[in-house]
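User: Teach me something about this protein's shape.
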Amino acid sequence: MKTTPQQSYTASSKRYDNMQYRRTGKSGLLLPALSLGLWHNFSTTDNFENAREILHTAFDNGMTHFDLANNYGPPYGGAETNFGAILKKDFLPYRDELIISTKAGYDMWPGPYGNYGSRKYLVSSLDQSLKRMGLEYVDIFYHHRPDPETPLEETMGALDHIVRQGKALYVGLSNYRAEEAKRAFEILKKLGTPCLIHQPRYNMLDRWVEDDLLATLDENGVGAIAFSPLKQGILTDKYLKGFPKDSRVVKDGRYLKVDQVASELERIKQLNAIALERGQTLAQMAISWLLKDDRITSVLVGASRSSQLLDSLKALNNIRFEKETLEKIEMILKAS
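Assistant: First, the predicted structure itself:
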């Protein structure tokens, strides 16, 4: 439901009518099939009213999960600061209907205590995140990446401590490989704070989780939420005719390079043709392809505008794939 800056936000009464919800591993928590990631377009340097409208659109369509991290920006902390302002303005009456997550594990502030996985860093970072967002607790707190130097027992102990403090309801991991994730699950289980969810990068062109991570999560009753489902926009039709001036690859080359896109164009064209046969855009098919696997609890999508988010939501209209279609997709994906 759209608002003007002067109006208070009232969520749509039909917000739960069409969204699909999936159980997170063996927990009691259900997550929407699509969750909103605030990695891009939600910082203090971005358009506040645009970010606000995207969040309204998400919640009005049953996307109850908003995913952040301490370093989302720029500047670091910017997304949490902006989200906190929007939360205060529009979403406080709906706090108990929301799943709000944040993370710590990447570089955040200068010195030896602002990075990786020490107890000092994780506890301090979450305190800062809660202050920026104006929250007493987050629903999910993730360790954002493995720390090769800090004992895993210390990092997992910090996550357990945070839950016992009441500053997070659940804990999760991100970017952990299968073997290290399994060790972390065992430690957390012994501490009495089971791992709820793992957030890996996963898409049609980046399938490392299929080697053994998804099986490990399933065996341990841990949910999976996939980020970068469109591989930073490569798995869309936006680059089929060139490089738009407003595209991320042109505006911001930190995470996506022109040559990365160019090397995938032939496969993208073939995948796009299959998507059109299914009555979908390529982006919608890429999301549907992930959700065909019951082990995927949710897919994290980003958006630069509300219309883009509404387009992503249409992926839920068709997440079934015929065997022949899957075989065609597999041939394309395995081609060098």
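Now, about its shape. Strands lie at 21-23, 30-32, 34-37, 65-67, 99-104, 138-143, 168-174, 195-199, 223-226, 298-301. DSSP finds eleven helices and ten strands in the chain. If you'd like, I can walk through any region in more detail.
User: That's plenty for now, thanks!
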